[in-house]
Amino acid sequence: MAGFKEARGDLQLESVTKTFGDFTAVDGIDLTVPRGSFFALLGPSGCGKTTTLRMVAGLEQPTAGRVMIGDTDLTGSRPYERPVNTVFQSYALFPHLTIRDNVAFGPKRRKDKDASTRTDDALELVQMTQFAGRKPHQLSGGQQQRVALARALVNHPEVLLLDEPLGALDLKLRREMQVELKRIQTEVGLTFIHVTHDQEEAMTMADTVAVMNKGHIEQLGPPAHLYDLPRTRFVANFLGQANTGVGAIEGTDGEHLVADVFGTKVKISRARSQVHDGEVLFGVRPEKVTVSRQQPQGVGNDVKGVVRDVSFLGVATSYLVDMPSGATWSCYEQNLDVEPIDLRPGDEVWLTWNPGHAFGVPVEEA
Amino acid sequence: MTTTDQTPVASPAYRPSGAKRVQLWLANHFAILSAILVLLYLFLPVAYTFAFSFNDHGKTNIVWQGFTWKHWQDPCRVAGACESLVTSLQVGAISTVVATVLGTLMALAMVRYRFRGKAASNVLIFVPMATPEIVMGAALLTIFVQGFANVGISLGFTTIVFAHIMFCLSFVVVTVKARIQSLDPRIEEAAQDLYASPAQTFWKVTFPLILPGILGAAMLAFSLSFDDFIITNFVSGNESTFPKFVYVASRRGIPAEANVIGFSMFVLAVLLVVGAQVVSSLRASRYKE
Amino acid sequence: MSSLAQVSQVAGDPAVHPTAPAPETEKRSWTAYLLLLPGVLWLGVFFILPLVQLAAVSLQSRFPGFPGYYYRDLNFENYLSALTDYAPHFARSFLYAGLATFLAFVVAYPLAYAMAFKAGRWRNLMMICVVAPFFTSFILRTFAWSQILADEGPVAAVLNFLHLLPGGHIINTPVAVVAGLTYNFLPFMVLPIYASLERADPRVIEAGGDLYANGFTTFRTVTLPMSMPGVLAGTLLTFIPAAGDFVNMELLGPQRGKMVGNVINDQFLAVPGGYPVAAALSFTLMAAILAMVFLYVRRFGTDELV
Ligand SMILES: Nc1ncnc2c1ncn2[C@@H]1O[C@H](COP(=O)(O)OP(=O)(O)OP(=O)(O)O)[C@@H](O)[C@H]1O
Ligand SMILES: [Mg+2]
User: Is the domain covering A241-361 a CATH 2.40.50.140 domain?
Assistant: First the structure.
């Protein structure tokens, strides 16, 4: 294997940029993914996720910046020289080879002496042993996806790139594969970079989630942090739902900022706001909002609205409430009360929340 | 089964009139019927050729004079018939191999690379297909007589092969190019991602996948070469290919042996293609078990 | 003409990606030149160079008094003669080729349509049937037609019996020539149309059937436009060889009223001293065809020809 780089360590991207003509697909990404962690990349379609993965795999060379694993600089090296494997968005199985030969392709190229046993193990792992003699076109979409996974995993790469690998699976198989993937990752201790459109998937599986938008990373951190305390308007709206309103910061009250939103004074914990004067986008998650018929006493942070819609979801009830500002908020109430409040569209309600749950982000998107 | 989907017995089923039914049937089967007619039309002269290969003819094989096996027993009896067939097969084989190799290389370059002069190359590949054979034949004749003769290449086998490679080349490029273009580029990327060097990627993945296109191109090239008369007629000198033999013979009457050979080639081609199809479908069904 | 190329592709082949957005990997371009070199050299030596030589010949003048001898010149009179003396031959060539192309289209379309949508598992067999007659040799088949269409033959007999044949003959008339051209280039029409229909999604046609109900309207507004690339390639691949052909005229046509291909052939191979005019005729024919192809493709075509 001439030129093969046995790199080990954390994956690092240093101000990696990729432009196609005058279009910048990836815009100066700095990123460190610790060795052995499960990293999820989330973002809207076309934001540059696949392009980023392709640069890590070596299928695309960055216009600027460096890609490193540990101390080894991989920038400029060819895909076959990197200890990185990819599960492609479109599977890209070799149509002329059997499933077994597809999986054995990598080990054979590396002249692995145990190629045969490793292939068997990998097929076993994704439960495809019985189909080993078939050609890819004789498999269902989900089965093909599992083969694609086995074909990459069998090589025990230092970094495994997964570009929406579970997209074609039905919900049940998808959940199974998520558990399986997570188990494999913990077992073999590889670095996984997982691109997905499924937020729930990202949140449940990943140690770290990065939200990408328009070629750069908006925010990065453990899933719970990102959800609880988004730092940009984009992340607030992209991850889960958020009730938001624009207001002006008017002063402080101890550890809280006071802002005027919808003609109401709301408090935001100083530590939970990215802006401390001028305009702020105030937000609070739906499940943090309480709905009541009467104005609660002495809490502050309350707004009067009109119920537009009520939907009973079993564990919870979801309300849509029209606010005086014209915005519509949504609220989830756990159905814990013995006698739940019976609200109907048109009823006037008060919404309250704990200021410790509110967050403030800049109004303008970066 | 309950009563849910029983046809109501009481109301008489709608029955169009006889003429109307014929009309409907014709409308439904129009495409298939006309296809069968067209195929019959395509085969008519082949059938004629076959029938008259049994004609116990005298000087000319035009009027039916009685049945005989003798032309089938020794088709090489007529001077030049089998020799020209052998020449045609040799020319076809050499031109097919060379044109397929050169054309495949060109197709790879045209699809996989960006380079200066690509548009010009495209034109260079297209124009021979848009040039009537007679023009190419005339041009080749002038260059062979006025240029190549000076370096010791005179009209004959070599010049026929040169010319056939030339006019097959564009068709090969176009055929293989279409095949390469329809390949998913991710498949080759996957190979590279799985540690295959560029050479390994080509031989283990790209080549097997474009092989059907290359074989198709080779078949096309062989049939074009084997059946060419106009260009060959210009550049062949005293050498004779099978079409040229038939053409020359047609002035005094084509011997039935030519019919035998022509029809046999037709049967051979059909058998070869059908055989290949059967083999490949057998192979495909093995995996389904 | 790429739809001709599609013919060689097995239906439903999994390696084939219908919308493959092949990103041209920017590899170093000298590899591309290396790959292209042998083929381009071949076309240069055996296509371009001969044409240049032919161009030189088309401008030569005759040595007065020495038939068969020429000297290098810039004699454009050869072209004048090609255009004036042989204008009727050009007209006939294009007329007969045009008619044959149209007839081939009419005959080929139902066959291609049936192959693509109705044939099912007979599809490959039908394809073989379309290509196989090639192997009996073009000349043999044309000769067979000359016998089938002969005065004593079955076609003339039936038509005469029905009093549908005013002149009493088919053979040695332009009708026979057009029939021969139509027949001989039919596979070149069928295959590209079939290829483009086969690539079309039958569901789109069904949707058309839902919208219009009337079969003919569906055909005209949905099916035909979808097969346009194939029709374009097919008409070119039929018209071009038909316009330059002389064999059908030779074997099926009348003694007088030949096509331009016959003139070129005779001037080159039979008439002493005919070279310059024949060369001028060749060039004029080529230029006319290229111009027609260009206009035609501009009018109906897609951007990418090959
Ligand atoms: N080869 C290319 N040439 C030009 N533009 C490209 C190329 N590849 C990607 N792009 C553009 O770069 C941007 C990012 O593409 P990318 O494939 O990385 O998106 P993505 O985040 O993976 O989206 P999705 O979730 O839809 O897969 C897109 O706007 C895309 O159009
Ligand atoms: Mg993507």
Answer: yes
